[in-house]
Design a protein that fits this description.
The protein is α/β, with parallel strands linked by helices. Strands 1-2-5-8-9 form a five-stranded mixed β-sheet, sandwiched between helices. α10 crosses α13. The protein is flat and about 135 Å long. The termini are far apart. About 3% of the residues have low confidence.
Length: 508
């Protein structure tokens, strides 16, 4: 008989089971929450590791490019018609198919039956022949269609391979001959293969000049959002929630600076290594940014560097500290890149691209304009003086002897921004090196001039732009800009003839 004690016992057992089930549910929930937090922490650690090892991982990829390996030699698969490729056997008639009636069968009407059977068999055979002819015609039509489609696909494949290989050969020839557009395309291709994390943008533009084997690069940097702001996750079992521990802002800033530094050094490697003839590279790393003051998109520069090959070959990038290496290379890095505090690049990319086009696309032998490179040194120095005077400055030419490295002295009569400026004019066909800037700075100090201008018919090595930027009082005017100034202030469309092309033995 059921009593109160049994009911209470059953109630207690049910409550205990419910409590046990609840404990089990909470244990499973806690285990799942902890497992999720651990997975998130593992993902965070992996992401940070990828950001910390951009340079090391990128250097593991061989940057050299073998254009011959890019040629296509793939064979088009042969036509496979399957069972339709072979005609089935044609129906065959045999007069002995039914056999001849026996003598006894002929006495009892067997011959008539045999003739009827033979006629019926011939009708079946003739129908089989008609069916065969119809099926064979359909098969042959299908074979012709399949063959026509195959031949069209084969021809398209052959044209595609020929077009691809022709483009590769054309690029290889252009790089070998140091054609500006070809080398630019080749270097952009080389940079497109730079090994970067998936969450890092991969975009770079190249401007190249055969004069001095210079390349100016503008590339995109990731925003601060590439660095995770969470340091770790913890599951709180008492509340069933996940708690975030924020990464210290100093750590975020340090990692972001490391990221943009590593990317820059990796791009330097991926310019010099694929092209052994390249002598100077200038890189500016920019980031897409919405100016909070104006609400307009901008593309400020956060890091700028100029490196020549002699400096590059001294580096062992596998063991450098990126920040220290950039300081060694006199790179200009934003003091607060996380705040998108911009720097002035070594050279404006758009101006450099325009300058490079102007400097290589004119052929002196086909041009009737005055060629500054054919002037005597004295004539060129007078030309420079006249140029400055036409721009509103007062100037005079120094004597050819005892000028202490000074070709001309100009003054600006403006009482607010005026002063003495030392000018050195170099009528060269070769590259202007950093030593010329040191010479100019020495003359400026000796003459107590506030500014110095180094003007040339040729071009400046990358280190010159860096040195001029560091000094802050030196202005550089290369051949293309000299042409522009002559046209603007003197109304003369002059020519600065490019040097004769150099012999090259390297073929990509």
């Amino acid at each position: 008989m059921w009593n109160r004690q049994d009911a209470l016992r059953l109630q207690r057992q049910s409550a205990a089971a419910e409590r046990a089930a609840e404990r089990e549910r909470k244990l499973q929930e806690t285990a799942a929450g902890k497992a999720e937090a651990e997975q998130l922490n593992a993902d965070l650690a992996a992401r940070v590791t990828r950001l910390e090892s951009i340079l090391r991982r990128g250097l593991e990829r061989d940057a050299a490019i073998d254009l011959n390996a890019m040629l296509r030699h793939d064979e088009f698969p042969p036509l496979d018609l399957g069972s339709y490729g072979v005609a089935p056997p044609r129906p065959a008639w045999s007069d002995d198919a039914l056999g001849a009636p026996s003598v006894m069968a002929g006495l009892f009407g067997g011959k008539a039956r045999h003739d009827r059977q033979l006629a019926a068999a011939r009708q079946v055979f003739e129908q089989a022949e008609r069916d065969y002819d119809q099926a064979e015609a359909a098969r042959q039509d299908l074979v012709r269609q399949q063959t026509a489609r195959y031949e069209a696909a084969l021809l398209a494949h052959q044209k595609d391979v020929a077009r691809h290989n022709g483009q590769v050969d054309q690029l290889a020839d252009g790089v070998r001959d140091r054609d500006r557009a070809s080398v630019q395309r080749y270097l952009e291709w080389a940079l497109s293969m730079t090994l970067l994390p998936e969450d890092v943008p991969h975009a770079a533009e190249v401007a190249y000049s055969p004069r001095g084997e210079q390349a100016v690069v503008r590339f995109e940097l990731p925003s601060l959002g590439v660095v995770p702001t969470v340091e770790s996750y913890t599951y709180v079992s008492t509340t069933g929630t996940r708690r975030e521990k924020k990464r210290p802002i100093a750590q975020v800033e340090q990692l972001y600076r490391s990221v943009i530094s590593q990317i820059t050094l990796l791009y330097v490697r991926d310019l010099f290594e694929p092209d052994p003839l390249l002598e100077n590279v200038e890189l500016g790393g920019h980031v897409h940014f919405i100016n909070p003051a104006t609400g307009h998109p901008e593309y400020p520069c956060l890091i700028s560097i100029a490196v020549d090959r002699a400096k590059y070959v001294e580096l062992n990038l596998r063991d450098v500290t990126p920040a220290a290496c950039l300081r060694h290379l006199n790179a200009l890095v934003s003091r607060h890149p996380h705040l998108v505090e911009s720097v002035t690049p070594v050279r404006d990319f758009d101006l450099a691209r325009y300058s490079f086009v102007e400097s290589v696309d004119v052929v002196a032998s086909l041009d009737s304009r005055a060629d500054l490179t054919t002037m005597t040194p004295t004539e060129f120095e007078h030309f420079v003086r006249q140029l400055f005077e036409a721009s509103g400055l007062e100037g005079w030419t120094t004597k050819r002897t005892g000028d202490d490295g000074v070709d001309a002295v100009v003054t600006n009569p403006d009482p607010m921004i005026g002063g003495l400026t030392i000018v050195q004019a170099k009528k060269y066909n070769g590259v202007i090196g950093v030593s010329h800037i040191r010479e100019l700075v020495g003359a400026m100090d000796e003459k107590r001039a506030g500014r110095g201008i180094l003007i040339t018919t040729s071009w400046f090595a990358s280190g010159c732009w860096t040195k001029a930027r560091e000094n802050g009082r030196v202005e550089l005017i290369d051949g293309p800009r000299l042409r522009y100034l002559a046209n603007e202030h003197l109304g003369k469309d002059v020519l600065v003839a490019p040097p004769a092309p150099r012999a090259h033995t390297w073929r990509p």
